[in-house]
Structure formats: structure tokens, C-alpha cells
């Protein structure tokens, strides 16, 4: 099992995206949070900005869509060049059709679950997805506190993925820091989003290394 770090740029300096992306060039992915002020009570950025990010990012783009009607919008983010597109289970009308469409566009298809959404309905269809995103905060804002009661859902997901033998990545997003990454790694996450922990650090590059090392040391076995 590989360990991947995907820093969220939600709280970076948006007036210098190129410079901010360059700071995390040692990360595996860059996590781009798209919010529409409907699915979540916040507005971040959309398709044209994602297109620009794809054009200058030294690492592949991991798009997290916190938007309504992903059935219509998610494929456009794949076409814009995001190599991974994650939509919310609560927002999609036809999640399987959408995941298949994303894969046809040569993008990794991810499905995200809000904290109160159970994993059970998805356990029989894990093969339809390349990544499951277990939210560890209510989506909408950076800098919130990690919800540790999500570790049970994470363990269940890891168990099911291992049982199928599929290479489905398990991502955690929300409140990941040096203090919380270990328990998330132990519970079975392999792909870690960290926003404020990385961009509030004095040296974002060094923080990415730090987080990766901690996650590796506490690898689920
Ligand atoms: C929350 C977003 C996260 C967030 C992470 O709605 O999906 O990606 O920006 O930020 P931190 O790491 O500060 O919780
Ligand atoms: Zn996110």
C-alpha cells in the first residue's frame, strides 16, 4: 500500500496560485476543492480556475467537487485535465453511471461521503470507484477539527477494500495534521488531504515530507 499526500489549496494565497503550487511540488497530488454555495455554504472556485491550475501544476490535480448536480458537472472537470475527480454520494443522481463516464474520460473516479453518510450501501460496488473519500469534517471550510469518530467507517472501508483485493484508494479529508494523520493511517487511509496544516506551516514543502513520513510509520497492516 502506497502513501499519498494531497495538500488542499483551499487556504492558500489565491493571488499567487503558481507559487503556491510550486511550494508543494513534492506532494503526490494537489487537492482542489470546488464549492458551489449550494451543496456547501461556501464558494471557492470553478472550471476556468481548475483549467488554469492544470496548466501550471507540477503535480496531478485531485478535484473534490462539493457541488450539486455532479452528474452534469464532474465530466467537465475530467475534460479540463483533472486526473482524479471525486463527487459526493449525497449529490449524485446516478453515481455508477457517473463513475463509469469519468473512467471513460481517463480520469480516476472518486466518491465522497459526508460524515453522516454510511459506507455500507457502497461496499458491494467498490469496484466501480478508484477512490473512496471519507470526510473527517463536514465539508465546506478548511481549518475545522478532525472528527475522530469517523475512524470506524474508515476501518470498515479498509477491511472491505482489502477483502476484494482491489486497488481502491481510501482518502481522508478534513483536520489532517501531524496530530491526526497517525490515527487515520492506522485506521486504513492511504491518501491524505491536508490544507491548513500544510499552508499554515512555515515551510510547506517540509510539512508535506513530515506528514508523509508520519503516515508511512503508522501504516495500517
Ligand atoms: C473541506 C475541504 C477540505 C479542506 C481541508 O470542505 O474539502 O479539503 O480544505 O482543509 P483542512 O486540512 O484545513 O481541514
Ligand atoms: Zn476537500
Give the topology, please.
Layout: E1 4-7, H1 17-23, E2 30-35, H2 47-56, E3 61-66, H3 70-79, E4 84-88, H4 95-104, E5 108-113, E6 131-135, H5 151-164, E7 169-173, H6 181-187, E8 191-194, H7 196-199, H8 204-217
Bound molecules: D-xylitol-5-phosphate and zinc ion.
Quick overview:
The protein has 221 residues and is of the alpha/beta class.
Structural description of this entry:
Pathway: Carbohydrate degradation. The active site is at 33 (proton acceptor), 173 (proton donor). Substrate binds at residues 8, 64, 140-143, 173-175, 195-196. The chain is an alpha/beta fold. It has one domain (4-217): Aldolase class I (TIM Barrel). The protein contains eight helices and eight strands, in the order βαβαβαβαββαβαβαα. The protein has helices spanning 17-23, 47-56, 70-79, 95-104, 151-164, 181-187, 196-199, 204-217, and strands spanning 4-7, 30-35, 61-66, 84-88, 108-113, 131-135, 169-173, 191-194. Strands 1-8-7-6-5-4-3-2 form an eight-stranded parallel β-sheet. Helix 3 (70-79) packs parallel to helix 4 and helix 6 packs parallel to helix 8. The radius of gyration is 16 Å and the shape is globular. The chain starts with a strand and ends with a helix. Bound molecules: D-xylitol-5-phosphate and zinc ion (ZN).
